[in-house]
Every structure is written in structure tokens, then in C-alpha cells.
Amino acid sequence: MAKVERDRNLNATIKLTHDEANKLECYFLMSSEFRKNEIETWGELAERKDENGNPVFSNAESNADFWREMDEFINNLYNEMERWMHDESRYNA
Prior knowledge:
Layout: E1 3-6, E2 12-15, H1 18-30, H2 32-47, H3 60-85
Antiparallel strand pairs: 1-2
């Protein structure tokens, strides 16, 4: 079962079983299209202006930025997990 440990600096280490890590990787892949759609939708909404040139949706740009950052974070985490999952040297430790 997943376990979270924290150090004195409140950094977290999450321990997953191999099966849990596989499920998390699967979720990352399954949700990638959703994140892509959120980025595109909020980006399009951020471009909409009223007759005075002001944004119609005042939070749209920050929402688009949030989804871009979230997508980058998840992709980086996924890639790190992939490297670990396929690193044969971890079995020799």
C-alpha cells in the first residue's frame, strides 16, 4: 500500500508497490488528453476580449498556465517513473 514519509523540511517521499506505480503511470497516460484539452480550452478562452479589449474570462490565462505547469509536472514525473521501472540495476541492489 502507498506510504508517505516526510522529513524535517516537509519533503515527502511516496513509496509505491510495483503494481501501484504501474497504475499511477497508467493514470498519467489516460489523463494526458484531458490535460491537453484543458490547456487548449483555457488558452482559447484567455484570448477572448470584450468590446473594450479586456479579457472576457479574467482567470482564463492563469488557468491555462496552471494546466501547462501541471502537465509538465506530470510528464516529468511519468518520465522519471518510466526510467525507474525499466532500470534493471534496481533489482541488483
